[in-house]
Write a structure and sequence with these properties.
Length: about 290
């Protein structure tokens, strides 16, 4: 068998770096922004942080906050907290770069979570039966408004510390912990890449204005041989974010890009960008938390 190859030299132009903003405005939380610079496609190093920039926040064309430089490309406010239902504009200036701008509105209404049911279910896949926790989350969608949601489940618990040089083991201490759980859903309306993770993204295309149920599954494998657990009893919290369209599209396109990263036959994925004269995202959301009793 004979084969041949053709070597083609491609001259990829080197463009001046541009500012890259990654920032989310969260209702009632101090505002933060991360600023780096773009790099050449063949550069595999970490993105360089950009310090010393002027980061300004406007609302209704009025300057309401200047965000201080907190080093390593992070800009964190100690006195400005975005408010749901308001629109904001960001303007960032740094010598040697184009001025970048973006705007976002924080959704007015938090998600109306009606009830959460927790149960255990057995699922048979590939010849094996596994037991999952199932969270059935009922919520009411606002009518005539395009909504974008992100849902996750947190749990709090005590991790007990023992000295196993004693028999029986001697209790030493307990540590209070909070975990964000890795969940999945079998909702047929969602693409596979958005059906599992530490949070799940979806919109209201199929249930606008109606009460809807999201079923989340969690596989617990932290069980000892005797059937007990190394942790104390869990308290669960369902967290639902009502997000801006920009946040939703950025997170969704990022997830799809990660899903396809090792697939040579996949279509290239362009990550969503809403930064004028630069790259990145300015997103927003407000949060509803439901404690599962």
């Amino acid at each position: 068998m004979l084969s041949c190859e053709t070597v083609v030299d491609i001259n990829i132009p080197v463009e001046p770096p541009q500012l890259v903003l990654n920032s989310t405005m969260i209702d009632g939380e101090f505002y933060w922004a991360n600023l780096t610079q773009s790099q050449h496609i063949l550069n595999s190093k970490n993105y360089e942080p950009v310090e010393g920039a002027i980061v300004e926040v406007y609302s209704e064309n009025k300057l309401i906050a200047t965000i201080p430089d907190s080093l390593n490309g992070n800009y964190i406010s100690a006195n400005f907290k975005p408010v749901k239902g308001k629109s904001y504009q960001i303007k960032i200036q740094k010598s040697g770069y184009d001025v970048i701008t973006s705007d976002v509105a924080i959704p007015l209404d938090t998600v109306k979570i009606i009830a959460v049911r927790i149960d255990t279910v057995e699922i048979n896949e590939f010849g094996y039966t596994s037991e999952y926790l199932k969270f059935g989350v009922d919520f009411k969608d606002d009518a005539n408004t395009k909504n974008y949601y992100e849902i996750s489940v947190n749990r709090t618990y005590y991790e007990y510390v023992y000295d196993y040089s004693f028999s029986p083991p001697l209790f030493i201490d307990s540590v209070f912990r909070t975990d964000q759980m890795f969940v999945e859903t079998r909702d047929p309306s969602l693409e596979e890449y958005q059906s599992y993770g530490y949070s799940i993204l979806f919109d209201d295309e199929f249930f606008d204005g109606n009460t809807h149920t999201v079923n989340l599954l969690y596989y617990e494998n932290q069980i000892w041989e005797d059937g007990s657990s190394p942790y104390g009893p869990y308290t669960y919290y369902v967290v639902m974010n009502n997000t801006s369209k920009s946040y939703y599209l950025y997170e969704l396109s990022s997830a799809l890009q990660s899903w396809n990263i090792d697939n040579p036959f996949a279509q290239p994925v362009t990550v969503y960008n809403n930064i004028e004269n630069g790259f990145g995202v300015l997103g927003a959301y407000n949060t509803a938390v439901y404690k599962v009793e």
